Each structure stands twice: as structure tokens, then as C-alpha cells.
């Protein structure tokens, strides 16, 4: 898709992403973590900051698969923090057999066929994973249940584990601290409600419902993730972000699937 000179704004999704360029290339501006052109096919873990996608030289089209928070750790058996905020080319992650299967997706014209191939690939990968539920899985369930409105201390209390141990496990298996992940989850949750609410929005109710101390704390988070205040922000300026919000954001789907696992 063609873009303006500033590129498309996207926010931390709370998921890992397997990205495949179908044509052209995107550049990413995610200061201070990554600046530059994305690999043609890449894997990226948890993102802790907003970023902008900008077309490199020509129109670009990209196909992405959202991965559950612990999927990259289960798939690679490497510490998840190695992939946080960093797009990694797939030859550094997967074997040649899997790379060849991924390479077939850009050549498929039908979106439905791409979905079918990607689904078969993910199911094949899942069959190779150890899906035994870990302490971090239980912590994520609590974070999703509370829409991110839960402290690390409360997580530790409910799970009967030390804060230091839980932080270590999250860094290894999710790629960020439990505090960071809860904050991303909370902001994703309130951002969806904020963008879908009719004007005038009831900010005191929204901020109170999502455990913000007051509206100013929400405004601060909003500026961190969008670069603008809530009053200045217009979703219509960001076509890709608008599409994601209207068609269920990644993290909303992850939370729903966590409640109803296959």
C-alpha cells in the first residue's frame, strides 16, 4: 500500500509477529530499538514502543501472522528477549525446509490460500512445541482476565512466587517484564474502547474502569504510544491501525483464544 512521508503508525500489539513481504519493502522507525528496512521475511517478538511503517522505494504489501506471547520462546527455545523490538531474518531462526514453505506464500495470489498455507504451517510448528502450561501461562491468564489492570505484586501473590523469579521467567518466555506486558495489555484494552466510543467520550469512566489513577495518567500513556494527546488523535489518519482496531486487534483475539483454548 502507498503511504505518506511519515508512514503508518502502529502500536505495541502484545504479540509476536511473523511478517512476509508480498511485494516491495517496508522501512521501520522504532527509535531507539530499530531503524531501517525490514527483512523480506522476518520474526519479531514483543514490541515496547510504537513504531511507523514506511514504504521503501515502491508500493508495498505485507502478510502477517500474530503469535501468542510465548510462541517465539516455545518455537525457538531461545530467550524471548532476544527477539523483542528486533525484526530477525528467518534464516537466523528456521531450518531450510521451513524457509522454503514460507517462501511459497508470496507467490500465492488468493488471500484465502495464503491463510490456508499459513494455518497449516503454524499447526505443523505447534505439533513440534512443548505446550505444557507454565507459570507464565497462568500469569498471562490473570493479566488478560484483568485487562492488564493488575500489578506484578498481585500476580506474585496469586501465583505464590517471588517478584524476581516471575520477572526472570517473563524475560525468558515473553521477552518483557510482567509490568511491561500488563501495561501494554491495559493500553490496548482502553485504546480499543476509546476509538470505538462515540463522541463525546466519557474519559473519567474509561480511565477509572481501566484503573488509571486519573485522566492525566491515561493522557501520558496515550502520548507515549501514539505521540499525540487523545484530543488530537484521529484514527482515520492511520488506515492500517484503523483496520486492525475495527477487525479485532491481535491482543483481543489472543485473550479470547486464551479463554477458549483448542
TrEMBL record:
Protein name: Helix-turn-helix transcriptional regulator
SUPFAM superfamilies referenced in this protein's UniProt entry, alphabetically: Homeodomain-like (SSF46689)
PANTHER family: HTH-TYPE TRANSCRIPTIONAL ACTIVATOR RHAS, HTH-TYPE TRANSCRIPTIONAL ACTIVATOR RHAS-RELATED
Coiled coil spans: none
The organism's place on the tree of life at top rank: Bacteria
Keyword DNA-binding: yes
Domain HTH araC/xylS-type stretches: 134-236
The entry's keywords: DNA-binding, Transcription, Transcription regulation
UniProt xrefs under Pfam families: HTH_18
InterPro entries: AraC_XylS_family_regulators, Homeodomain-like_sf, HTH_AraC
Entry annotated with the keyword Cell membrane: no
Annotated organism of origin: Algoriphagus confluentis
Amino acid at each position: 500500500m502507498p503511504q505518506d512521508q511519515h508512514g503508518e503508525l502502529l502500536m505495541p500489539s502484545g504479540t509476536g509477529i511473523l511478517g512476509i513481504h508480498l511485494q516491495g519493502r517496508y522501512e521501520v522507525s522504532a527509535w531507539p530499538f530499530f531503524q531501517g528496512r525490514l527483512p523480506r521475511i522476518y520474526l519479531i517478538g514483543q514490541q515496547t514502543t510504537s513504531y511507523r511503517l514506511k514504504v521503501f522505494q515502491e508500493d508495498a504489501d505485507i502478510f502477517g501472522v500474530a503469535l501468542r506471547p510465548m510462541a517465539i520462546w516455545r518455537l525457538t527455545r531461545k530467550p524471548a528477549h532476544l527477539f523483542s523490538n528486533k525484526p530477525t531474518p528467518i534464516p537466523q531462526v528456521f531450518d531450510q525446509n521451513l524457509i522454503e514453505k514460507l517462501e511459497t506464500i508470496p507467490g500465492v495470489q488468493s488471500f484465502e490460500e495464503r491463510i490456508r498455507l499459513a494455518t497449516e504451517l503454524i499447526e505443523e510448528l505447534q505439533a513440534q512445541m512443548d505446550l505444557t502450561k507454565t507459570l507464565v501461562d497462568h500469569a498471562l491468564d490473570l493479566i488478560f482476565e484483568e485487562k492488564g489492570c493488575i500489578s506484578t505484586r498481585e500476580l506474585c501473590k496469586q501465583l505464590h512466587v517471588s517478584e524476581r523469579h516471575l520477572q526472570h521467567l517473563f524475560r525468558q518466555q515473553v521477552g518483557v517484564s510482567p509490568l511491561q506486558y500488563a501495561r501494554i495489555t491495559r493500553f490496548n484494552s482502553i485504546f480499543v474502547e476509546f476509538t470505538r466510543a462515540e463522541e463525546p467520550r466519557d474519559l473519567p469512566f474509561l480511565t477509572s474502569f481501566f484503573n488509571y489513577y486519573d485522566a492525566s495518567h491515561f493522557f501520558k500513556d496515550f502520548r507515549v504510544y501514539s505521540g499525540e494527546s487523545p484530543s488530537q488523535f484521529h484514527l482515520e489518519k492511520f488506515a492500517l491501525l484503523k483496520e486492525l482496531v475495527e477487525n479485532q486487534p491481535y491482543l483481543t483475539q489472543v485473550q479470547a483464544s486464551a479463554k477458549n483454548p483448542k
